């Protein structure tokens, strides 16, 4: 039996209208030695029926999240990883699309055995996707990425989305997605992987396309979905602890998280940062007043960096 080189893992929930287009983009890959593991988070629509025809191709495998495990995309991603057989792992979202040469270009770099991941560009679209793909013969402008780039990754200057990176499975070791987070999950997990020493390559090829729509988690976050916002706070606290333990907490990152704490109205984030800097009682009262009255003082606050 030939094992697949790349395991594609897709968590899915109520995507009957979008999942087929995503799976078609996998079938269209010029690189053929893959498996696609689809993990259904107990959908209540016809998602399973839409997936059924694809299962005639042995490379597609369909599972339902075990009842005893927590609901959520991250549980499905971790479960899919447990079921995977490939040497490399590519996490997809169930509404996104891949360039036909996505896997082949990334695999050409990963198969050399010297890197833990290959990162590439991702663009976004709304509505119908114009499948006029750019033609690439090889990777463009490969540059090294490691812990030295951690500021750019956290500040989203070097954007790590769920789907725009393929990982060497053995490099992940026992590190997994946090199953208690429902937003900013890849931001927390991928940053944590790099803080733990993983090194890779970033290329300029545009190889993935993210769909924007009203059911997306990003849309919900910026429209005050409290669960998504709480997850961003939890993810931030985890990352701040990692940065502290790895001694990578720069002034730029301190300022960024302080601003993020205001944006999220999070006393937890602000208190963590004040403890880190041992800020005095008068300033502590002032900063907490600002958080609690953010909507009133927002017009006069001048942020130094972009909130992401």
Automatic annotation (TrEMBL):
Keywords for the protein's UniProt record, in alphabetical order: Transferase
Signal sequence, renumbered to the chain: none
Membrane-spanning segments: none
GO molecular function list: transferase activity
Pfam family membership, one: Glycos_transf_2
Superkingdom of this protein's organism: Bacteria
Keyword Amino-acid biosynthesis on entry: no
Domain Glycosyltransferase 2-like: 7-136
Name the record gives this protein: Glycosyltransferase family 2 protein
Organism, scientific name: Christiangramia aestuarii
């Amino acid at each position: 039996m030939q094992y697949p080189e790349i395991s594609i893992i897709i968590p899915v929930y109520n995507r009957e209208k979008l999942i087929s287009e995503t799976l078609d983009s996998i079938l269209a890959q010029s690189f053929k030695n893959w498996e696609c593991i689809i993990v259904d988070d107990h959908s209540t629509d016809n998602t399973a029926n839409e997936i059924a025809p694809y299962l005639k191709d042995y490379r597609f495998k369909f599972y339902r999240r075990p009842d005893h495990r927590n609901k959520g995309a991250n549980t499905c991603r971790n479960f899919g990883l447990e079921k995977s057989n490939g040497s490399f792992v590519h996490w997809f979202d169930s509404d996104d699309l891949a360039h036909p040469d996505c896997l082949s270009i990334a695999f050409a770099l990963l198969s050399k055995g010297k890197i833990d991941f290959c990162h590439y560009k991702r663009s976004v679209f709304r509505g119908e996707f114009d499948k006029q793909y750019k033609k690439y013969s090889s990777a463009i402008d490969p540059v090294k990425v490691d812990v030295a780039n951690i500021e750019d990754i956290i500040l989203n200057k070097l954007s790590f989305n769920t789907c725009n990176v393929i990982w060497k499975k053995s490099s992940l070791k026992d590190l997994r997605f946090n199953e208690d987070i429902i937003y900013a999950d890849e931001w927390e997990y991928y940053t944590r992987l790099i803080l733990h020493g993983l090194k890779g390559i970033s290329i300029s090829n545009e190889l993935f396309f993210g769909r924007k729509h009203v059911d997306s988690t990003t849309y919900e976050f910026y429209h005050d979905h409290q669960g998504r916002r709480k997850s961003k706070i939890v993810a931030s606290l985890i990352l701040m602890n990692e940065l502290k333990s790895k001694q990578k907490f720069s002034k730029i990152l301190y300022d960024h998280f302080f601003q993020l704490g205001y944006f999220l109205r999070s006393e937890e984030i602000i208190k963590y940062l004040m403890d880190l800097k041992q800020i005095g009682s008068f300033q502590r009262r002032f900063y907490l007043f600002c958080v609690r009255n953010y909507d009133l003082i927002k017009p006069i606050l001048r942020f130094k960096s972009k909130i992401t």
